[in-house]
Amino acid sequence: MQLPLGEVRRRRGGRGSGRSLDWAAFPNLAVGVFAVRVNLWAMPEIVLATLNAKFIHAAFGLRYLFANLGELQPRAAIVEFDINQRPLDLAEALLARAPKIIGLGVYIWNVTETTEVVATLKRVRPDIKIILGGPEVSFETEGQEIVRLADHVITGEADLKFAEVCRELLSDDPPARRAREGLPKIIPAGLPDFSRLALPYEWYTEADLAHRIVYVEASRGCPFTCEFCLSSLEIPVRAVPLEKFLGEMQKLLDRGLKQFKFVDRTFNLNVATSRAILEFFLARHQPGNFYHFEMIPDRLPAELREVIALFPPGVLQFEVGVQTFNPEVGRHISRRQNYERLADNFEFLRQSTRVHLHADLIVGLPGETVASFASGFDRLVALGPQEIQVGILKRLRGTPIIRHDTEWRMVYGAQPPYEILQNRLIDFALMQRLRRFAKYWDLVGNSGNFVGTRPLIWGQASPFAHFLRLSDWLYARLGRTDTIALARLAEGVFGFLTGELNLEVAVVAKVMAEDWRRLGRREAPGFLRGFLAVENGAPVRGHQASLLKRQARHLAE
What we know:
By secondary structure, this protein is α/β, with parallel strands linked by helices. It has 21 helices and 16 strands. The protein has three domains: 23-188, Rossmann fold, CATH 3.40.50.280; 217-426, Alpha-Beta Horseshoe (pyruvate-formate lyase- activating enzyme), CATH 3.80.30.20; 453-557, no CATH class. Strand 15 (411-412) and strand 16 (420-422) form a beta hairpin. The chain is globular, with a radius of gyration of 24 Å. Residues 1-38 have low confidence and may be disordered.
């Protein structure tokens, strides 16, 4: 995994914790912007900044860079923003600190806004050195406007290289001046050894630990070569020394951190290390703790099964990248997968544990027809994960997926997030329907708001076919796939089930009212009340109260 100048890259932004924010807990917020500083230096010479997808995300990579600044650390500060803020305001906030160097983390989700910030900074203060890093500017730098505007771009993992560049830019020694004059715009960074890296965890503030998503990593890299993923370029896998890592996790626990989101691409690659980490958290588990891991779907030996089965319900979440069930498509994208072992592992996790399973499938892969994707989707539904993330293929800079462009006539959007628009097998209109399918599936299938209702949508038929029908039906009536009030969405699902599928109204109303109670509400929504024998009931609560909301909803199934 690259951590050049910002938080861990994520293909889909991330989810909030469901906790409300106590703004009194953020004494270092800059006026009008969500800027969190980990250094009280009044006028830092170096500012590390990025635009997070949401305020609740804490920039992991910035903290790595700050931790490894060495003697420059007292002269630096971290400033975080989010993409919903105006770029002009962000430029103002950065300039108010009067830095000499600004390091910006650039990602697929923030490159448009960050380009505008950089353009403003260079117009107003061209003397400030702008250093970029991050996956979006680590590859295919030619022709990128943000690269043209910046002074320097560090490609790769900049944990150590950023400090080296800053030393050259700030030093007045004659050798440093000569080095500075010859400093190129594009500066490659080698893979840093974890034995040389200072770990970043002390630079999460108390407010971060209480209110934001905190990322941790026990390893970087991935042994697989999936052509759509930047991790395929990160070989070999490198691990943090286990004793050192667990010592840092103990410090976070001692400081009160409840939620640990591991960004390791293949957490269960080294079984002995994975087991040791799981046993560490199991021995220290307290109500309210939650642990997220990304797992290889076909690798779950007995040594891991034993300890996984000991965790309480809902406190482990495994994100499992299936991506496709079509072996031929898997060969096209250089993805190796044992589907029999995958199915066996899913069965174990669903039958013998209470792990929250989040599985990924991708729409638009070269060679994947709609029928092939539908078959894979139905197969995955039958395996029973609580959530299925239907992702739209993205053409990330640097990934070898481009080798299929001619044969499969792959056409991607020109602007971030560079999603597939059409290919030889799926035209634009059909791709749009699948894009809406993915959006509505997240709202209905994944949210946990329709746990009992969801099976009514397809009954004994194809989940894909019937949910695509629901998706088309909802879009024809709602005209949108986002910012839909839950009550309005539920009424739409009710109308589809009773009107389009002709299911018995009383049965549907009863099931949907039970789902409503599962959300902690006593009264059924207005559109259901006339169809219920008993309108109200006690809201569902209990041991789930200490879990994250989305995971708790799924536990009731």
